[in-house]
Amino acid sequence: MAFRRILAVGDVHGDAARLRALWNEISFDDAQDLLVFLGDYIDRGPAPAEALAFVRMQTERNENVHALIGNHEAMMLAYLAENGIDGFAPTHLWQCNGGDATLRRLAALPRAEAEELIRFVKGLPLYFRMSYEGRSILFVHAGIDPAREKQRERDLLWIRDVFFERYAGEELIVVGHTPTQFLGARRDLTRTAPIFFPNNIVACDTGGFLPGGRISCVDVRRYLDLRARGGMPTADEIASCYVQSAAKGAAHTAKNT
């Protein structure tokens, strides 16, 4: 199928309200579009269970919506396997990274509803691969290890610097996980737009949980169409390749800002 748009949504981190607003802004059409959620739907934000339920609902309603597991979902599953939904382990890696909020919200749900969300997470794949105009596209939460032919789960979920610095493949890799505010030589909280790297990486996590951060949706097909003309697109052309939620703390969505 020739999709009108090939979309990727970066990390949500429990902000169900901004996710719903962004979804409305996207105006997804299952008959024409494909969309991949890149993981990390839970933790840190005010409504992690609601955000996870929203993603689950869209995958059930739409044939061409896919959701990947992120490292925060993987941490949740590891915690629950060890401690259960009623457990208490305040020094666990997951709870130290915002999982306490998610655990409280899951425990407050009817047991069957919480267990259904957990089953959904257990079924999430690590990656999604497709091709467009003969170009391979890999959607994955964190990235890959360029030095390894066979990838490890921990790299697909957790890798950062080695991937961004050393990847030199032809396949376009679309990722979340590392906030754009943390990429580059120094931390910069004003860096809240997706980054399109010349070494065929698209970074979609725009730090929605950080001050001024946003949740972003990238149109990968538009970006590849622009690249097909030769060279890197202009700044204005790049800006036409994504839409974003409002900045954290704002009331409404903003397009291409």
Written as H for each helix and E for each strand, in order along the chain, the element string is: EHEHEHHHEEHHEEEEHHE
- What is the helical fraction, as a range of percent? 25-40%
Total of DSSP H or I helical runs spanning 4+ residues:
9
Domains counted in the coordinates: how many?
1
DSSP summary, beta strand count: 10
Distance between the termini: 31 Å
Q: What's the short story on this structure?
A:
By secondary structure, the protein is an alpha/beta fold. It is 35% helix and 16% strand.
List the helices and strands and how they pair.
Elements: E1 5-9, H1 16-26, E2 33-37, H2 48-61, E3 65-67, H3 71-83, H4 93-108, H5 111-122, E4 127-132, E5 135-140, H6 153-158, H7 161-166, E6 172-175, E7 195-197, E8 201-203, E9 216-219, H8 220-227, H9 235-239, E10 242-244
Parallel strand pairs: 1-2, 2-3, 5-6, 6-8
Antiparallel strand pairs: 1-9, 4-5, 7-8, 9-10
Helix pairs in contact: 1-2, 3-4
Q: Would you write up a description of this structure?
A:
The structure is a single chain. The protein has 257 residues and is of the alpha/beta class. The protein has nine helices and ten strands. The chain has one domain: Purple Acid Phosphatase, chain A, domain 2. The strands form two sheets. The chain has a five-stranded mixed sheet. A five-stranded mixed sheet has the order 4-5-6-8-7, with no helix packed on it. The longest helix has 16 residues. The protein is globular, with a radius of gyration of 17 Å.
